[in-house]
Amino acid sequence: MSRVATGNLVEGQDAEPDLSRCPVRDVLDHIGNKWTALILLTLNASPSRFSQLQRAVPDISKRMLTQVLRDLERDGLATRQVFATKPPTVEYRLSRQGESLMTPLIGLVQWADLHHDAMRAARKTYDEGLALLAAR
Amino acid sequence: MSRVATGNLVEGQDAEPDLSRCPVRDVLDHIGNKWTALILLTLNASPSRFSQLQRAVPDISKRMLTQVLRDLERDGLATRQVFATKPPTVEYRLSRQGESLMTPLIGLVQWADLHHDAMRAARKTYDEGLALLAAR
DNA sequence: CCGCATCCGTAACGATACTG
DNA sequence: CAGTATCGTTACGGATGCGG
Are B3 and B9 contacting, i.e. CB atoms less than 8 angstroms apart? Predict the structure, then answer.
């Protein structure tokens, strides 16, 4: 396992800021944005065209969808295939790498389904506690 | 499993925007921010005081650390315990909920460790491809 | 149909100084 | 030690319009 488990999250403070950061940060910074994980899950369900993805995730803008797809392609998590039809057809699908990410990602999804209610309840309780303090 | 696996990421387009969003989004929006996952992993390694956390993650600001800890507490993922020493001591630790998150989260960490190099290589290749195009 | 470019508002985040 | 308050910057993301 990585250094993380030891509690030493970053390399000892070397003079070099060092660009290639901790793998954990790198990966989380990528799937952590608002849309990436959702698109990955959608592509996992089935390879899709641009417009299909827009329908699957209705509240993403074209701008963001394009950007997320470029990033996935760049990171080697998805592939882009253009068909010279008219009008053109572009299909996105998960790469091997992308598929391998699904296992841990689906783990998170399952956790989310199981614990979402409890989390929302905890938030409510916490906020009500604050409200009591504010009322004085 | 949730609707996600079917590719239907959000509820059918009901008139209600509905505040309580898809669990997946909710959870990812929380651990997806720049620091939360890192703090969770650190707390998992061992319960820690505020300043210990700062040392474990040297490049987080006090402002952000405070905010992340408040959010974790609010979501019921971590607990905050104050000891009336002088100067005061505050210890944070994972709650049961928080611990249950560790399983899927560590899955992601392991994936990151395994695939980080390949991802960086893919990026490099991609960027070089772009450079070739730009050179013409 | 696909997707790039532009403009712009809003958050997230960082640095610093100050308090119990 | 463990925060809060304030300020400034940056990057994320939405809306729209053009082009292949």
Answer: yes
Interface of B with A in 24-53 (CB under 8 A): 24-29, 31-34, 37-38, 41-42, 45-46
Cβ count within 10 A of residue B48: 19
Lowest mean pLDDT among A6-20, A39-53, A103-117: A6-20
Record the tokens describing residue B88, joined without a space: 């005061």
Separation between Cα atoms, residue B69 and residue B76, nearest integer Å: 11
Neighbours of A2 (CB within 10 A): 18
For the entire predicted model, the pTM comes to: 0.85
Distances (CA, A) of A92 to A48, A52, A97, B134: 5, 10, 14, 24
For A8-23, how does the pLDDT look when each residue is reduced to its tens digit (9 = 90+)? Answer: 444 333 333 454 678 8
Q: Tokens standing for B64?
A: 């952000």
Q: Which of A117, A26, A54 is nearest to B115 (CA)?
A: A26
Q: Which of A36, A85, A33, A86 is nearest to A57 (CA)?
A: A36
Q: How far is the CA of A7 from the C1' of C20 (A)?
A: 30
How far apart, in whole angstroms, are the C-alpha atoms of residue B113 and residue B135?
34
Q: Which amino acid is at B71?
A: D
User: Cis before residue B47, ω within 30 degrees of 0?
Assistant: no
The Cα-based distances of A100 to B28, B94, B107 in angstroms read 19, 28, 11
| Chain B residues touching A2 at Cβ < 8 A | 109, 112-113
The CA–C1' separation of A117 and D9, in angstroms, is 37
B135 exposed, middle or buried (CB, 10 Å; 0-12, 13-18, 19+)?
exposed
